[in-house]
Design goal:
There is one protein chain. The chain is built from ten helices and six strands. It is of the alpha/beta class and 227 residues long. β2, α7 and β3 form a beta-alpha-beta unit. α1 crosses α4 and α3 packs across α4. It starts with 5 loop residues before the first strand and ends with a helix.
Amino acid sequence: MSDPLRLVIFDVDGTLVDSQGAIVAAMGAAFVAAGLPVPARGDILSTVGLSLDRTILRLAPTASPAMQARLVDSYKQAYHAHRVAHGAAAGSPLFPGARDMIARLATRTDLVLGIATGKSRRGLSALLEAHDLERAFVTKQNADDHPSKPHPSMILAAMAEIGAEARDTIMIGDTSYDMEMARAARIPAIGVSWGYHGVQQLQLADHIVHTFDDLTCAMDSIWKVTT
């Protein structure tokens, strides 16, 4: 019997790329345009990973539905303007070690790499193109096609697309939403400590890693692989 095909799903913002500058700038511009007080930086970053409509609901819970819709549109425009002005790669740089880790995993014949992100389809495509990573990820699940994290829809769709079983799938992310999404999909999860949620918020993770070099050992530990 051949070995199972294993699926490794990555979050993007706060896990692979440090996009906080672009996110905070765009959110600030959206609230200024609406004439509303700009949320604190920490409050903005605490919502990274959620779909945009859920993010706005968290940051402006008392705003009218019309105002929340306006904030969503203003954020999209401001984020796009930031990307045009600074470039997607410069505005959302890869964390140190991310490219080498992706390259190593992408060469393994027993693994398939995927993405589950709160980004839009357009935003994800622009980012992957800017970093020349389009071919590294076989399945790319985004906020346009699914309910917001922590709903398990993105993970379940990625598994179905690849044909991977839950026991052969791992989620890697930096937020509690990623960990909760993995738990809802009944798959193991690895939390990364360099993202936008503190380690104390990653308690549902099976492992927490502090560098990209630690990922392989964590994955092997979950899958009980000896090297």
